[in-house]
């Protein structure tokens, strides 16, 4: 029986939410592999000391090898 697991990832980008999602998915593919799907759980803008970042929390479904 094949089990599917879900990992939660956080990714940031100074350019926007779409870029943060791309960055997070690239990291997920590099570290987890065998990804079946993903969804955005949360989006928010983070401002600290004048620096703005777009942050997404992703849930990624994958099958471990």
What value does the average pLDDT take? 92
Task: Pick out the low-confidence regions.
Answer: none
Give me the secondary-structure category.
alpha+beta
Using only C-alpha atoms, the radius of gyration works out to 13 Å
Distance linking N and C termini = 12 Å
Total number of strands: 3
Beta-sheet strand percentage? over 45%
Query: Quick one: biggest sheet?
Result: 3 strands, antiparallel
User: Major sheet: order of its strands?
Assistant: 1-3-2
Give the number of helices: 1
Give the SSE string: EHEE
Outline = elongated
Helix content: 10-25%
Can you put this structure into words, describing what you see?
This protein is of the alpha+beta class and 65 residues long. The chain contains 1 helix and 3 strands, in the order E-H-E-E. It has a 3-stranded antiparallel sheet with strand order 1-3-2, covered by helices on one side. The mean pLDDT is 92.
Structure in a nutshell:
By secondary structure, the chain is an alpha+beta fold. The protein has one helix at 17-31; strands at residues 5-13, 35-48, 51-62.
